[in-house]
Design brief:
By secondary structure, the protein is α+β, with helices and mostly antiparallel strands. The chain contains 8 helices and 20 strands.
């Protein structure tokens, strides 16, 4: 029967985690409390990227009502636009009332009205290139004409951040904090269109469209005078996002923000694409903030440190604790042999206390055992009992302090019966 110090062993990682959580609970609680009290908080943010090259054409496709149908002409035409490096393709959908789709179509109808588009047939897609309705059957010709209608020079500078906020109810808003400076005088009708598009959209009828515009926000609240700086925030409010079916909890990835400035330079009456910006909607994974990882990093660091301390102490304890083996000794009177094998620490056995009804024949003298050695104790008893023998042994272990080991041994007759049954089982 080998006895080790099982009662005093602990799981280092479990203790470390509990300790770290308890240690950081006030900080975590204050953080949660602060967030709860706040009306809204920043969920993610990213900087507005540089403008897209001037030779890239913004193509707005007003798709037909059956985008999945086997219309090779329509599919091939849109595929050509989609696959060109000099095109930024976006899709509009106008047919929810006619088809029972859950895609939004109010903004598509409003955009068609802005552009003065002709009546569109449900089975025919229309294309708008840099805000000009396509008048050409040849794609290359249409692209080149659209490039000719774009502004070659840089007419404005835009910088700032796209911020995704969330309130207590889990509702999101998109805020675009900007500094805008026209470099030349722009026409008074210059307008910014903010488009929120879904990279791969699918409606309740399993129609599928790429780059579907879910929400549009026109903006005119900025100066059009040269060198006049405007600092402002453009907002796509939560009501718009909810109405547009934008669920960033269910689908946090796969969204883009497009900023398209349309207007003209002073002295030019032709409406053109003045500047174009396109970037993924920020999320927690694409552009994490250092503050997002501060608390987990602290927790991991403290857990690691504490786990190391606990593991080190546990390792020292395991190497220093003695192994104790107890067995009955065959004799005419009941006797036990206590075998003590020390670890890397000296051990002093200071007391041996035997619990009734068992009684030892003589008193106990303290015993000192050097490290990495083995000693045996012979203990005789006055008489045999049917009850289990239980006793405790007090020890002083160098560097580990005092330990009391409680031991229990079946009476000698029961022990022999167990051994006999074991032999019989082996023979079977």
């Amino acid at each position: 029967m080998t006895i080790t110090n099982c009662n005093n062993n602990s799981h280092p990682l479990l203790i470390a985690m509990i300790f770290s959580v308890l240690l950081l609970s006030p900080i975590l609680a204050s953080s949660v409390s602060a967030q709860t009290e706040s009306i809204e908080s920043i969920w993610a943010s990213s900087a507005i990227p540089p403008p897209i090259a001037k030779d890239v054409v913004l193509v707005e496709q007003f798709i037909e009502d059956t985008p999945n149908a086997d219309d090779k002409t329509q599919q091939d035409l849109w595929r050509i636009y989609q696959n060109r490096d000099d095109v930024l393709p976006l899709s509009w959908w106008k047919w929810s009332d006619e088809t029972g789709s859950d895609w939004p179509d109010d903004d598509a109808k409003a955009r068609a009205g802005q552009l003065g588009m002709p009546q569109q047939s449900q089975d025919q897609a229309l294309y708008v290139l840099n805000s000009n309705i396509e008048q050409y059957q040849n794609v290359d010709e249409a692209i080149e004409q659209a490039k000719n209608l774009s502004i070659e020079e840089t007419v404005l500078e835009l910088s700032g951040d796209i911020i995704l906020t969330i309130n207590q109810k889990g509702e999101y808003e998109i805020k675009i904090q900007v500094e805008l400076e026209p470099l030349v005088n722009l026409s008074d009708d210059t307008m910014l269109h903010i488009f929120l598009s879904e990279d791969n959209a699918e409606d309740v009828h399993e129609r599928q469209v790429k780059n579907l515009i879910r929400d549009m926000k026109p903006e005119v609240g900025f100066s059009v005078k040269a060198n006049n700086v405007t600092n402002t925030t453009w907002i796509m409010p939560k009501e718009h996002l909810i109405a547009a079916g934008v669920d960033l909890d269910e689908k946090p990835l796969g969204w883009h923000i497009t900023l398209a400035f349309f207007g003209s330079v002073e002295g030019d009456d032709t409406t053109r694409l003045l500047a174009l910006y396109n970037t993924p909607l920020p999320n927690k994974w694409s552009n994490p903030q250092s503050s997002d990882f501060l608390m987990p990093m602290i927790l991991i660091l403290l857990t690691t440190i504490f786990a190391y301390i606990v593991y080190s102490n546990s390792s020292i304890r395991e190497k220093g604790m003695p192994q104790i083996n107890v067995a009955w000794k065959e004799s005419t009177s009941p006797k036990i042999i206590i075998s003590i094998k020390t670890g890397n620490q000296n051990v002093s056995v200071t007391n041996l206390e035997i619990n009734p009804p068992w009684k030892g024949r003589s008193g106990f003298n303290q015993l000192k055992i050097n490290a990495n050695s083995k000693r045996e104790l012979n203990i005789s008893f006055k008489q045999k009992h049917e009850e289990d023998l239980s006793f405790s042994m007090a020890m002083m272990i160098d560097e580990l302090g005092g330990w009391t080991q409680h031991l229990r041994l079946s009476p000698p007759m029961l022990e022999q019966e167990i051994q006999l049954r074991s032999v019989e089982n082996d023979e079977n």
